[in-house]
Amino acid sequence: MIVQRPNSFWDKFYIPAILGGLAITFKHLIGKKFTIQYPEERVKHHPGYRGAHRLNKDNQGRIKCVACEMCSTACPANCITILPSASPIDWKDRERVPQIFEINMLRCIYCGMCEEACPEDAIELTYIDDLVSYTRSEMIWDKERLLAQFDLTEKTQPMKTARRGASMKALHGAA
Ligand code: SF4
Ligand code: SF4
Known about the structure:
Layout: H1 15-30, E1 53-55, H2 70-74, E2 80-86, E3 96-104, H3 113-117, E4 123-125, E5 140-141, H4 143-153, H5 160-172
Antiparallel strand pairs: 1-4, 2-3, 3-5
Bound molecules: iron/sulfur cluster (2 copies).
């Protein structure tokens, strides 16, 4: 049951309530700001943040993925599609490469299981968090798009294997 509280003498003037509201507004004008001027300013993510994916390249600029399909098997959202094909004849280090590699970014839940499952460190989640498009089909990222993500983020986010190596060195000192 709602009990109606009768307005007091001061409530009927409204001025104290308005002044109280303005005091709160001015207090926040000079206090610490939690908003940022997006897109000029970006949020700094925590180290474990999981954003959009990328497909890594090796030191010869080739795709690292060997189309083993471990990531698509591990994916709980079933949003990775891989079509393997035979690797080029002069690629002696692998038998298969992905002919098609697609991730449905709308279905993805950004759990990172694909990254964990990959034996080649070929797929990684980046800090990129602004995923927008005009159509649903644009949100299905193909191999070229995922490799372009690597080019875009390589400098600011070195491959996690490199980062792990650097932190081990820092921990144990350079050998
Ligand atoms: S982050 Fe999770 S849901 Fe998204 S593609 Fe990887 S395994 Fe699938
Ligand atoms: S990204 Fe990794 S796990 Fe997925 S198919 Fe390629 S090599 Fe295998």
